[in-house]
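Usage

Read records sequentially. Each one opens with the input sequence:
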Amino acid sequence: MALKYPSPAAIDIRRVDLFSSTAQELIAALNTEWESRSQEEGANHFRLEPHEVAEGNGAFYIAYMSDAPIGCGAVRRIDATTAELKRMYVAPAGRGIGIGRVILKALETEARRLGARRLVLETGERQPEALALYQRAGFVEIPLFGEYVGSPLSVCLEKQLSSDA
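and closes with the structure output:
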């Protein structure tokens, strides 16, 4: 039986405050899942500050399907031409139906709006689903950067962004 993918129009992406209760619930679920996969010291990088997702610096989005929050993601500007993806997550009930792709597209659009021409991210080697999503979207592996240098399970990726979506 083939998977039925929701149309992008069926998924509502909303910019929200990082400290909203819905954002905090999704982030807590994400943290719990990542901690269960990677318990080694220095393997998890959960930091994201409110100023990093403030207007002009980045954004935090929640994906809703039928008005239920089903996933989230953030983008923060690192410098004038580079932005970083953070806190990408799709709840288990929403996996495998294309929600991650819709969130990723919204984050790429926001990165372009912020002036980024390069999008980078860190994920873990124990997150094969995330690695597959990013590789299908055109990301390629790069050396560990920033706070991830020396992280035992980190995998860093980048994608060059065209000026047109």
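Summary fields computed downstream for this record:
- The helical segments are 21-37, 99-113, 128-136.
- Residues 21-37 form the longest helix (17 residues).
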